[in-house]
Amino acid sequence: HPEAGNLGGGGFMVMRFADGRTNALDYRETAPGPASRDMYLDAQGKLTDQSLTGHLAAGVPGSVAGLAEAHRRHGKLTWTQVVAPAIRLARDGFVVDEFRSRSIGGSADRLRRFPASRAQFLPGGNPPRPGTTLQQPDLAVTLQAIADSGPRAFYQGRTADLIVTEMEQGGGIITKADLAAYRPVWRDPIVIKYRGHTIYSMPPSSSGGVTMAEALNILEGYDPLPEFGSVAYVHLLAEALRRAFVDRNQYLGDPAFVSMPLDRLLSKKYAAELRAQIQPDRATPTPAFVSSAREGENTTHYSVVDAAGNAASVTTTINSSYGSAVTVTGAGFLLNNEMDDFAAAPGKPNQYGLVQGEANAIQPGKRMLSAMTPSIVVDPSGRLKMVLGSPGGPTIITSVTQVILNVLDHHMALSDAVAVTRIHHQALPDVINYERGGLLPVVVAALKAMGHQADERSGFSGDIAAIE
């Protein structure tokens, strides 16, 4: 799945153990030491595309350190056993299906700009045809070194040298010191109480848990919620999400750099204040001063529960499809373009229309804000109920929130809760996006009459992976 997550990215993990203990691991990428606030602005103060494609777009990768740290604290198999299947897959290859061939073809123009990416993904200058085998020998060597020597091989060994050489040749700024200094961070999960259930989700530098908590706290005051798919339900959901994203974009960032009013944002009292602003028959436009944010939708999520009831919810990414499009020469993996998740120009929209404020401005060593929302739900008796998460950029938050609502409020089976169509609202742009055929024409007309803008989107909102 090279387009959406590999050694060159980062992620988040929320864990709950059979005895009730919980923790969260932040292995989000960081800004390189030479990074600066306005590094992606041209002489006229306009954003360039350097935060999206090329060497300058890459943050310091966290995946290897994060997964190794999770294994160090909680692993049962040996590290060599854990890495071995990935080595075999890279060395022996896998059969390219039609989807993967189309995926590579869709990013071919970006990939062919960089020699190692062109050689790896465009043999003969074209995407691999369905039915052919894609082998990644350089990646196999990199993985073998990680299996033999742990994360040190990546952050201080030959792989680190290859990353720095790639940076120097392509105009990037990640240094050996940046790689050697990278550390994952253990954090306490965000704890959300909703309808008697307890939800554990990711805290900042992910915005997912806080934003979802704020939306759920607002909606908890409507008991029961209106019927699924009704005008009233979509209106209330959009208004709750709007308010949660306003605060997300204004206040949230890396806790090592930003002081955030989390107690207030997570409080039921504050949710009641926001709920009181919602009119039952009228949309409330997003304030003009609010910022927005963007985040790539090409992310990977997996939910795991073992026989003992230990659960892990894991989301990882390189941001956009194929990240920065730069493959590290000799190492075989793509680098992320996570620097685009910063507010490269605070107050201006990024590639996904999200507008963010100073809390997420670029600073050396800082983690860029994320929307990843790996989550675990426990029922009122303390039993594990759901493990879920999703790819999808900002739609991750709204997708995970809606699946939880579908199960707990609308009493759907999990398969139905995941399969039904979803909406998305992120404050700015001030629009309800709904999946194709997801809202009846009469519902759309009624929402527009209330002052909402409602647009049908192609594709899906999120791609939930859940266990019940």
Protein architecture, described:
The longest helix is centred in the middle third of the chain and has 21 residues, at 231-251. The strands form 4 sheets. This protein has a 5-stranded antiparallel beta sheet with strand order 5-2-1-9-8, covered by helices on one side. A 5-stranded antiparallel beta sheet has the order 6-7-10-11-15, covered by helices on one side. A 3-stranded mixed beta sheet has the order 12-13-14. The model has no long low-confidence stretch (mean pLDDT 96). It contains 16 helices and 15 strands. It has a domain at 1-36 and 185-468: Gamma-glutamyltranspeptidase, small (S) subunit (Glutamine Phosphoribosylpyrophosphate, subunit 1, domain 1). It has 468 residues and is an alpha+beta fold. It has helices at 63-74, 79-92, 98-106, 108-111, 115-121, 137-149, 152-155, 158-170, 176-181, 208-220, 231-251, 262-265, 268-277, 395-408, 414-419, 441-449; strands spanning 10-16, 22-27, 94-95, 133-134, 185-187, 190-194, 197-201, 299-305, 311-317, 375-378, 384-389, 423-424, 432-435, 454-457, 465-467. β1 and β2 form a beta hairpin. It is globular, with a radius of gyration of 22 Å. It is 34% helix and 14% strand.
